[in-house]
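Every protein is a chain of amino acids, and every chain bends into a shape of its own. The protein below has been through that process, and both of its lines are reproduced in full.
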Amino acid sequence: MSKVAIVRCEDYDPDLVYIAVKRSVDYIGGMASFVKPGAKVLIKPNILSARPPEEAVDTHPEVVRALIRIVKDVGGTVIVGDSPGGFPKNVDHIYEVSGMRQVCQDEGVELVKFTTSKFVEGVPICRYVYDVGCFISVPKFKTHADWGHPIRGHPRR
């Protein structure tokens, strides 16, 4: 059975995000129960397109930063990557606008592009998954309905 933890965070202040993400990971057993010292970890945010964090389209870079720090705290080595919108030609631009490039530079971790895959039972799996001891998928909790658009005054958490 899967474990799920939900922790409220009032905004994207880096310290508040770190506390909330750490608390949620602790609720499901703590990062050390998933990542052993020296393990290589792939963090995969949900990056759709070249949209800034305040538009709430992609996984917020502060959530990724918090996970990077939590993995490092238990002795893991991190790489971050995705295939935004399914292998576009402008991945560097997307990483820049989304804030992922800056977070990875700040935290000293490699930011990779998912450009090659291996088919497993007809499903393409990014090659980086086979190079790591742990894979952390970081979805963006959102809706695609217009009523949740932040410009219209609705919350974007």
In short: The longest helix spans residues 14-27. Helices lie at 14-27, 61-73, 91-98, 100-107. The longest strand covers residues 40-45.
